[in-house]
Amino acid sequence: MLSYRHAFHAGNFADVFKHTLLLQLVQALRRKDKPFCVLDTHAGTGRYDLHSASAAKNQEYADGIGRLWNQSALGPELSEYREQVRALNPNGELRYYPGSPRLIRTLLRPDDRLILTELHPGDYPVLKAEFASDRQTAVHHADGYAVFKAFLPPAARRGLVFIDPAFELRDEFDRLLEAVQVIHRRWAGGIIALWYPILDRAPSLRWRRALRELAIPAMLCAELGLQPYDAPFGLHGCGMIIVNPPWQFDELLKRLLPELRQRLHRSEQGETRLDWLTPPP
Ligand SMILES: C[S@@+](CC[C@H](N)C(=O)[O-])C[C@H]1O[C@@H](n2cnc3c(N)ncnc32)[C@H](O)[C@@H]1O
After folding, report:
1. Catalytic residues
2. How far apart, in whole angstroms, are the C-alpha atoms of residue 86 and residue 98?
3. Which of 52, 155, 197, 272 is in the most buried spot, having the most CB atoms within 10 Å?
4. How far is the CA of 4 from the centre of ligand 1 (A)?
5. Which of 151, 130, 139 lies closest to 48, judged by CA?
């Protein structure tokens, strides 16, 4: 049963992290003059109203995009991310928040393509309506883990698979592990970006070890921890695994992760981490 609704969490610190990185991955794809395709397997609804009852309940966005809204002197990546959110809020008041599909879509050139899958029967129609007359974006009511055979490799042969699961299933890490293998077998050159939460430290550490053992080359891991990992409750941090990251993406993250931590600061004991799980070939 699907109970997770991203509307409750839109614009929180995890969204700031994943969406800032996502924009930079798509920007890197734009640097070459050849078309690319992005598959966003867990797409959500595409945009969120932060004044809705769901978003207003815990106001998670206040400690995410809300922290950045009026800050001065943001670094280039956070500044670009905030510009994208501002574009949805032309009167200057933070109300609408773009989900990953909308963010990716704003960067597509005329020959680039976006494929979206969303399984929730309530969220899918909203997503479908958001991209109703868009010929570059295909929206499917489907299990994002079950579409790799159908969609990969894409005709463009360049691009990104972005996997941002809800983590309501006990075996989500196992599913991700399986997904990386299937995607890599079908499309060894594609970029894969996987987001994961850090609640208890142990499962994410086990998962990192399991990824390493796959021996797929060029797996970069970036983590943002905002409070001690042994704190009793809550989402302590999150991470992203990037397979085949663009050139010098590690250098970009070396600069960006400390800034994310400083801007979203919650505790002196937070930490960031950046390492290659497997080196580039
Ligand atoms: C964390 S949210 C995605 C947020 C979105 N990627 C964004 O950044 O705006 C996870 C989404 O995955 C959907 N979902 C859960 N299981 C799924 C599956 N097996 N296939 C596709 N979507 C799924 C949920 O309904 C939810 O909308």
Report:
1. 164
2. 10
3. 272
4. 8
5. 130
Q: Which 8-state DSSP code applies to residue 97? A: E
145 within domain boundaries? yes
Please tell me the distance between residue 86's alpha carbon and the centre of ligand 1 in angstroms: 24
Total structural domains within the chain: 1
Rounded distance, CA 78 to CA 58, Å? 24
For 180, the token pair is 């990386």
Question: Helices 123-130 and 100-107 sit at what angle, rounded to 10 degrees?
Answer: 20
* Neighbouring-strand partners of residue 37: 113, 159
- Give the model confidence (pLDDT) of 129-148 as tens digits: 999 999 999 999 999 999 99
Beta carbon of 118 within 6 Å of any ligand 1 atom: yes
Find, among 127, 140, 123, the residue nearest to 54 by Cα: 123
Q: Per residue in 62-115, pLDDT tens?
A: 999 999 999 999 999 999 999 999 999 999 999 999 999 999 999 999 999 999
Answer yes or no: is 44 within a domain.
yes
Q: Assess if residue 33 is contained within a domain.
A: no
Range of the domain at 60: 6-27+38-278
Q: Is the CB of 4 under 6 A from ligand 1?
A: yes
What is the CATH number for 194? Answer: 3.40.50.150
Distance (Å, whole) CA 228 – CA 206 = 18
Domain annotation covers residue 1: no
| DSSP calls for 37-79 | EEEESS-TTSEEETTSHHHHHH-GGGGTHHHHTT-SS--HHHH
Q: Whole-model pTM? A: 0.97
Question: Rounded to the nearest whole angstrom, what is the distance from the C-alpha of residue 139 to the centroid of ligand 1?
Answer: 13
Report whether residue 42 contacts ligand 1, using a CB cutoff of 6 Å: yes
